[in-house]
Each structure stands twice: as C-alpha cells, then as structure tokens.
Amino acid sequence: xxxxxxxxxxxxxxxxxxxxxxxxxxxxxxxLSNWDKVIEGFTTRYRVVIPLMPIYEMPIKSAGIEGLVxxxxxxxxxxxxKRFCLLGNSLGGHVALVYTSQHQxxxxxxxxxxxxxxxxxxxxxxxxxxxxxxxxxxxxxxxxYDPRTASKALVDEVFEITNSIPKCLRIxxxxxxxxxxxxxxxxxxxxxxxxxxxxxxxxxxxxxxxxEFNRLMENSELYFIDHCGHAPMMEKPxxxxxxLEQFLSKxxxx
Length: 254
What we know:
Radius of gyration: 17 Å
Largest sheet: 8 strands, mixed
Shape: globular
CATH class: Alpha Beta
Strand content: 15-25%
C-alpha cells in the first residue's frame, strides 16, 4: 500500500489519520513500508506517524543510539506531538525504550516487537558482506520464519545499502552502539503500559529476550506469534493488529 511521504526540513515521514498518536519507529534495515498494515488498520481511529530514521545519512560521529534518540526528540518537537503511544521494531524498539526512559511524561504506552536493548544477533550472527547478493538474500530471509516474506525488492534494497561504504560505516557504528547500550538497569524504571509482541521463531532477538523484557518491565504483557520471525507486523500483520487493538482498547491514553 502506498502512502504520501512528506518532507519538512530534514525530516521525511508518513502522517496519516486523526486521533490519538501512534508514533512508529523502524529498525536498522527497516523502512516506512514495514508498517503498512498498521497504517491500513489504524488510521480510521488514530493518527499514525512514522519518521524515516536517518540511519544511513546521519553524521558518523553521532551514528548510534543516542544520536537516533536525539533525532526522535527533534522530530517530536517539529511535529508538535504532546503525548503518544510509541511502537518500535528491532533497533526502533531500542530507541523507543531510551526515549521513554528520558521522556516518560510524553509516552502513554510502549509496543515492542523484536526489540533490541538486551541482546540481539545482528543479521543472524554475522555482519552483511559487501558484494555478495546471494549472501544478502540469505541473511534477509533469515529475518523471517517464512523466507517468502522477504520480497526481491527488500533484498535489493538491503544489497544496495550494504554496497555503500559510507552507509556500512554508519550501520557498524549504530550496531556497536546498540550492543554496548544494554538497557537492563534502565527499563526497570519504565512504568508505562507495555505490549511485547514476539515472533516465536525470532532468531535475531530470541524468545528468551522477550521473557527478560517481560520480567524487567513490571507493567508489561507478552504475546508470542507462532510461525513468525523478527518482524511480526510484517509477517503476521493480522495477529499483530489484533494484539495492538486489544492493548490500545485498555485506554492507555486516559
């Protein structure tokens, strides 16, 4: 499904629907399109806002978790967002957690799916090689339980990214920053209602990670989706949307 990508100042983003705000953050190799089914399912009742994270363009010195949190802070201010539910997949979940720990007054609730922040196997345990399409194809498909979820367009996009030395440098810097920034001691202070949606077959942030998030975050609820990998909102969008709807119906915005 195609939506208008708006451009204002240095920001590119999707802003669809009206109502309480759902602010969505994609992961390291993610894109705005990762959230297509959430946009489709929720814009009749919510305002869905998705910034394009500047993963491949940000200054190399600030290419890390804190740099991405600062980007989100600037974006929230630019958009005039006051209170919202924050959703994050993979690296986006990590950024959402750090942002929430620093701005709990602005966050009504958190939804994490395949989030980093405690432990992750980047690209299935190895960093993407440059120049080998077969290798990239294999690693991208490794993200999902059903390899067919990884379209050729997605594989082509990741292949193009990994063939750019400047982009690879930023990827390495951000990935290392995420691995260093373990959130175990920070997230115990987050008291916001939290929904954890995990693929039962996630090989990048395995089920043990989900259980640990659930243990450390006292106001969290955890659901697994079978036959699903690292990106439930892409691979099992119907089930993901049902769980999200149930969570939002608990009046987290009141």
